[in-house]
Amino acid sequence: MSAAEQPSTAHLATLGHLDAATRTELEAAAFRALVSHLQWRTDAQNIDLMGLSGFCRNCLAKWLRGAAVEAAVELSDADARQAIYGMSYSEWKTTHQSPASPEQKERYSSTSALHAQHPLLK
User: Fold this and answer.
1) Which of 41, 59, 71, 80 sits between 20 and 30 A of 118, alpha carbons compared?
2) From CA 111, how far away is CA 52, in angstroms rounded?
3) Which 3 state secondary structure label does DSSP give 15?
4) 121 pLDDT band (50/70/90 cuts)?
5) Does the structure show a pLDDT above 60 at 4?
6) Model's pTM, two decimal places?
7) Is the pLDDT assigned to residue 9 strictly greater than 70?
8) CB 55 within 8 A of CB 31
9) How far apart are the C-alpha atoms of 111 and 54, rounded to whole Å?
10) Which distant-in-sequence residues (6+ apart) come within 8 Å of 101 by Cβ?
11) What dotted CATH number matches 19-121?
């Protein structure tokens, strides 16, 4: 998906009255709440998240790592995933990931054009 095809962030203009530091604090708090919620909702499988919303925990880890790349901060894939999953990716998969059903695989496949992109990491 090209940058022109990405969803607009114009709606964030409603935060325009905030100074940059406050806005960043609020956005970071919302991100932390989302991550915390996904760590709590281990029943929400990544394949379902991808099929319904086009992003999952792995996407969040890739976006986090992409932000680190932009900021010239070293962050490994494993460390980014640990930050999002709250444990190693292999531990999460062993503990919480269920085998994908044919229906989940079909929804994932049929929505692939809408899945999140990670251009900084290609």
Assistant:
1) 41
2) 8
3) helix
4) confident
5) no
6) 0.85
7) no
8) no
9) 7
10) none
11) 1.10.3340.10
